[in-house]
Write a structure and sequence with these properties.
about 260 residues, 8 strands, globular
Length: about 260
């Protein structure tokens, strides 16, 4: 469970081992008591935005190694990002917006001039890492749940992409962000492509929960295509889903 793991590290650094021990015990007993609840808000005790930014700033130092270790929830991570790029069918004239650009793992795969990439992340340290590999990209610090987005990204993008970011949001928040993206930031013939921790059906979700119980992060909101696609279609979106690993998939979203 990556978020639990790195939040523990951060708390240990900030509060000391006694605080960490109490927090881990409380979090573990809470996890046991909750069980699996599809569609129910599970992120009840998340740190505030400042705490989360500090957490991801710290994680930026080891992020790329951690997501490439082949363990849940990052099984098939590299393959999934490659599949997203293939599905994007990029052309040299395309302008691309990368949501949660992180260290730039997805951005460096793009076959477009680097000046046609806009990347946003709420972690300043992650953006610093991205700038090292994407020096010509337009990088902006932004909380995707904020009501105020920079003027610079109020333009139509041919492709809006995201790798392993949206599972931080509740299903309701996912839908709200997608609705705004398509209405205000996507070209008429554009495509949104989201690669993330996801399962095809509710049955597969439950199997995944049982199989990966020791690593499952109950503070995150993994996707279930069977429940999310109908809700996206209600918003007037056309959605295709591809399972790319045991615990990851790609949502290809267009205007109907």
């Amino acid at each position: 469970m990556p978020f639990f793991k790195y939040l523990s590290v951060y708390i240990l650094y900030e509060k000391g081992p006694d605080k960490l021990q109490a927090w881990v015990f409380q979090g573990f007993t809470s996890f046991l008591g909750k069980g699996l609840q599809l569609g129910v808000n599970r992120k009840e005790n998340m740190p505030d935005n400042n705490g989360r930014e500090a957490l991801f700033n710290h994680w930026s130092q080891t992020y790329q190694d951690d997501v490439s270790d082949g363990e849940f929830p990052f099984i098939g991570y590299e393959q999934t990002l490659d599949c997203l790029i293939q599905a994007a069918e990029l052309q040299p004239i395309h302008k691309v917006l990368d949501l949660g650009i992180g260290t730039g793992a997805l951005g460096v795969r793009l076959s477009i001039p680097p000046g046609q990439l806009w990347g946003v992340d709420f972690s300043a340290a992650m953006l610093d890492k991205a700038a090292e590999v994407l020096p010509e990209a337009h990088l902006l610090q932004l909380d995707l749940l904020s009501d105020e987005w920079p003027e610079e990204i109020h333009q139509p993008f041919n492709r809006i992409i995201s790798g392993y970011t949206f599972h931080e949001f509740t299903d309701e928040q996912k839908l709200a962000v997608l609705k705004s993206l398509v209405a205000d930031h996507l070209a008429d013939d554009g495509v949104v492509l989201i690669a993330d921790i996801s399962f095809q059906t509710q049955a597969a979700f439950r199997v995944g929960f049982q199989r990966f119980a020791n690593q499952w992060d109950d503070s995150e909101f993994y996707w279930c295509a069977e429940t999310m696609i109908p809700q996206m279609e209600v918003l007037g979106l056309k959605v295709q889903y591809t399972q790319t690993s045991d615990c990851a998939g790609i949502y290809k979203i267009q205007k109907s």
